[in-house]
């Protein structure tokens, strides 16, 4: 009897699709934010378009997908997906500086205990 040591999924691994409950406005807004950032830093190209990057990052953030699972199906490395997630979180945080600054302001007198 011969041993079968080959992978069950084949050489490319198992790829699956999932539907994200997101509006197209959210995806378009985030892809425009990414596109503007890439233009600002002078990035000549990325492995995927800004729209595909936005979809992958939202899948990681919204559905708690592992970057390695999404990377294989899209032809990029796990660390690339992790870097995209960090960049997008940084972009979102940079856009909320007013909200973050409000956390450091003293609370109004009505909110403090007497």
Describe the fold and architecture.
The protein has 114 residues and is mostly helical. The protein has a domain at 24-102. Helices cover 56% and strands 0% of the residues. It has helices spanning 24-41, 50-63, 67-74, 78-95, 97-102. The longest helix is centred in the N-terminal third of the chain and has 18 residues, at 24-41. The protein is globular and about 35 Å long. The N and C termini lie far apart (82 Å). 12% of the residues are buried. The model has no long low-confidence stretch (mean pLDDT 76). The chain crosses the membrane at residues 88-107. It comes from Streptomyces gibsoniae. This is Transposase. Keywords: Membrane, Transmembrane, Transmembrane helix.
Q: In percent terms, what proportion of residues is strand?
A: under 5%
Q: Helical percent range? A: 55-70%
What is the string of helix and strand elements? HHHHH
Could you give a short account of the major beta sheet?
Answer: none
Mean pLDDT score: 76
User: How many helices in DSSP terms?
Assistant: 5
- SS elements, strand count: 0
Q: Which residues form runs of ≥5 with pLDDT under 50? A: none
Record the SSE blueprint.
Layout: H1 24-41, H2 50-63, H3 67-74, H4 78-95, H5 97-102
Helix pairs in contact: 1-2, 2-4, 3-4
Keywords: Membrane, Transmembrane, Transmembrane helix
Protein name: Transposase
Transmembrane segments: 88-107
């Amino acid at each position: 009897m011969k041993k079968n040591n080959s992978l069950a999924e084949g050489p490319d691994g198992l790829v699956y699709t999932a539907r994200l409950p997101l509006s197209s406005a959210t995806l378009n807004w985030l892809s425009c934010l990414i596109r503007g950032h890439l233009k600002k830093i002078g990035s000549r190209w990325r492995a995927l378009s800004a729209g595909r990057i936005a979809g992958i990052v939202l899948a990681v953030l919204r559905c708690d997908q592992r970057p390695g699972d999404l990377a294989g199906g899209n032809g990029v490395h796990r660390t690339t997906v992790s870097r995209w997630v960090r960049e997008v979180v940084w972009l979102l945080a940079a856009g909320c500086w007013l909200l973050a600054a409000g956390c450091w302001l003293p609370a109004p007198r009505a909110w403090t205990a007497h």
